[in-house]
Each structure stands twice: as structure tokens, then as C-alpha cells.
Amino acid sequence: MRKQMISSLTALALFVGGYASLVGIGGTSTVEAAQAVSSFKDVPASHWASSAIYSAVEKGYFKGYADGTFKPGLPVTKAEMASILARLNDQPELPTAEPNHFTDVPEWAKNGVSTAIAKGFIHPSSYKDKLGAQAALERGEMAEWLTQGLSVVDSDYGQALSDVTNTVIPAKEYFTGKLADSQKNAVAVALGTGLMSVANDKTFGVNRTTTRAEVAVLLSRYASVAKTKPADLQGLNELRQVGLTGTNLGVIAPSYQVFPENRYPDSYDYSKVTDDFSKIRNKELNTVTKYASAKLKNWVVINPYVKETERSIYYPVFVDEKDKLLRGAYYSFTEYDFNIIDSMSRLQAGSLFNSPTINPLTSPNSKAFREYAVPHMNNLLSSKGIFNVKNPIYWGEGLLHFDKTLNPEVHLTLKDGTTFYIVPN
Length: 425
Prior knowledge:
Blueprint: H1 2-16, E1 19-24, E2 27-32, H2 50-58, H3 78-86, H4 110-118, H5 139-153, H6 155-163, H7 172-175, H8 181-193, H9 212-226, H10 234-245, H11 249-252, E3 256-258, E4 273-274, E5 292-302, H12 315-318, E6 330-340, H13 346-350, H14 367-371, E7 393-400, E8 410-413, E9 419-424
Parallel strand pairs: 4-9
Antiparallel strand pairs: 1-2, 3-9, 5-6, 6-7, 8-9
Helix pairs in contact: 2-9, 3-4, 5-6, 5-8, 6-8, 8-10
């Protein structure tokens, strides 16, 4: 039995890369973890994470098991992850860390958890007295830990965590309302930095556990992101701008500018003209027809002509690879919030705004749009094309033009006269 106990704890020591205190007959002894082997039987060169795994082992974040395996598919517990994060030598420590009040951390992990707290990965104030140290770490909590760590590296990452509070998150759980507010910001920043991504089913998977192989990859990505300024990450910039203003226009189409003052009549109050979408976001707009009162919740613009590495972070949500546009137009996707006065058909919705850009006539028909479960107009219509709810909220598809013969202006006015008016320069 004593031999079996030592063997089990030695395997644990190989994971945490330190020492395990072994209590047996005759007292306490300390066994040093074995050195990592040069190759693992279960991590061939063809393994999807082999490069990251061997890099993590070389840096001392992980060690293998005594039987020559790495066990890449084994879930990682919170205690184990905290001990790994504690080993990130390039991670600065907070001037004053929160007190460690956890009562459920095993002895071998106490120093690691305390160091992870000092380095800003774990906020004890977000928990009660227990960390759940022996439980497998889920992806939502992983996103929280890593993005909190980034905010210590660069305070602008901390600002980003605040800026994305009201953003649109490119994950299925966001559109289906299954992403908890407590994890929304961390998930947004994790996606915007490229630290983490959605799965094939388009979900972020906040409740999925994280494996040793996945952690090895995340450590590599974290090191890269930590060396990058937040302002240099387009996806994060888009998420921040949508969070703050309601649109990513300034990131994707900065050539659009406020309508010039010299083109307005002298009698017009130009002080009410703006190119700041936040000033009209979620506020009642004047409409061409009066079938419904109308608000715009969010507006996403996508340039379909750039290479994949330069695409909008929202491209995979709205656009299929095969989709093409003519005459240099960009995609324009708007989230509408209508309150129907009496009844309204699909065609009548399309008459509310006289704009090819802000166009509620139809929702996207892309495969991507369906896979992400983005709210679609068709789900709100009867068989006769009449809205069957009084307050339809859905995403519509339009075009943002640059060709001046195709009405490229975007002109929206509030009841109080505030006017969002932009044109390509």
C-alpha cells in the first residue's frame, strides 16, 4: 500500500514539477519529481499540440509521468493550473496582492496558488472561502484567470476588460443568451487577443474542461499576447469599439468621416451632427415610415476583400467564404430593436430607413449566421410575412458603399435632432 501511495504521489509531483510531501509509515519523507523525458510515448510529432507541449516541458511548466507519458488529454485542476501560472517568470507581481483565504487548497499547491494570486491571475474576492482547487478548470474560468493576468502585464488590457462590457461577442453562447455576465468580459478579451477561440460548433464552451495539451498551447499564446500592445490587436480593438460605441466602423472603415460642415446650410445647427454612433445607439430614431419605433443596438461592418489574417473578428459569424460583393461594397450588419405600433410586415420593416446600409428588410442567409444562432428575422415572422411579436430584435444585412453613385451616405436622426451623418472621404 505504501509503495502504491508513493507511486501515485510521484506522478502528481511530475505534473506540478516540484516536490511532493509523502506521509507514510515512520514519518514524512520528500521525493523529488523525476526529470522530464526527451519524448513522450503519447505525444508523437503528429500530435496537434506537440510543439507547444515540448516547449512547455522545456520551460519547466510541465513534466511527464514516470511511465514515459505526458497524458495530453488529462483535465487540469485549478490547483494544478495555479501552480503552472506561478512559474511564469516574466509575469510581474501586483504591488499589493489580495489575501489568500482559500481553505481547500492541498498542501503541495499552497505556494503556487499564493503566487498565482500575487501575479494577478486569481482574484480571491471573486470566490468565497473555497477555490474548488481539486475540480477541473473550466474554460470560462480559464479565460478569467488569463485575462486578469494580462491586465497586470499591461493596464490597457485591464481597460479592455472594462471596454467590452457592452460588446457583441463572436461566440454562439452570446447570441443564445447562455453566456453569464460574470464571464462575458473575460471571454471577449480572450477571443479578441487570440488567446482562446470557439470550437467547431461555434461555442466558446465556458463549461468545458481544459486538458494538459490545451494548457500547453494556451501558455504559448499567453507569452505572445503578453508581449503585444492591446492597440495592435485588431480583433480586440473591434470588440472594444463595439462595446464603447456600438460599432466597429472606425476600425474596419476609418475612411468614413462626419459629413463636412461646409456642405450644410448656414441655418442648420451643425453642433448636433456627429460621427459618434454611441450618441444614437439604443435611442429612438426618426423613421421614414411609422410602422414601428426603432432603435439600433449594434452595427458591425465587414471588409470582405482582405486576407484572412486581416479580417474582422466578426467575419466568421456573418459571412461564408464563398460570399462575394460587387463594386467595392462592405457588408453592413445591424441589430434592430423595434416596437411595432399596430402590425408590420417584412416589407414594411424595410421601409423604415431609406438606406442601403441600415436595411432591416432581411437577415443574412449565410451558413455561418445560422451556425452561430444569431437572431434572424425569419424566426419572428408568420407564414404571411407579418411579425408575430411586438418587439422584434434581430440582425439585418445591408451594404456599406464607397461608390458615390450608390448613395454611400449613412444618415440617422434622433427625435431631439441629434444626427449621425457620415460619408466616405
